[in-house]
Amino acid sequence: MTQGDTGITGADEAYEGKAWNVVGHTYTPKLHTENAMIWHAVVPDGTFVPPHIHPTQDEWIVMLDGNLEIEFGDDLHKAGPGDTIRMPRGIAHGIFNRSGATATCVFGVAPSRKLFALFGKLDGVTDPAELVRISAEHEVDFLPPPSEG
């Protein structure tokens, strides 16, 4: 962000006019700088982001409406309106909406690294293998699915 980027991204606006469909969620960027990225997310019931790691970014979510479950390995945390979820770099986490209703929240990462470009590449991608491949090229590493046993 430079001095010329001061101002407001309105509630019904997106930074640079962009919005993406990523894993069934609608992500609307609100701020993007080298140091941080913030986006509004609409997370429908039954959708999720599989467990993954950001090796170069801290991530957080501020819940607005609805409920999400966050898995850190075997630990399950439930978050509702007003809660802040902290996901430090290097810690595997999965984000799940199993609530029966849509959730809305604001995500952030710092530093922004390659995430803005990643969401542009993932917009509308539905093939899990392609999602994993593209994400790895942008510093987000998905964990392999659990083995059946």
From TrEMBL:
Residue stretches making up the Cupin type-1 domain = 6-132
Cross-referenced InterPro entries, in alphabetical order?
Answer: Cupin_1 (IPR006045), Cupin_2 (IPR013096), Flavonoid_dioxygenase-like (IPR052538), RmlC-like_jellyroll (IPR014710), RmlC_Cupin_sf (IPR011051)
User: What CDD domains does the annotation carry?
Assistant: cupin_RmlC-like (cd02208)
- Cross-referenced PANTHER family: LIGAND BINDING DOMAIN PROTEIN, PUTATIVE (AFU_ORTHOLOGUE AFUA_6G14370)-RELATED, QUERCETIN 2,3-DIOXYGENASE-RELATED
- What is the official name of this protein in its record? Cupin domain-containing protein
- The species is Paracoccus tegillarcae
Question: What lineage is this protein's organism placed in?
Answer: Bacteria, Pseudomonadati, Pseudomonadota, Alphaproteobacteria, Rhodobacterales
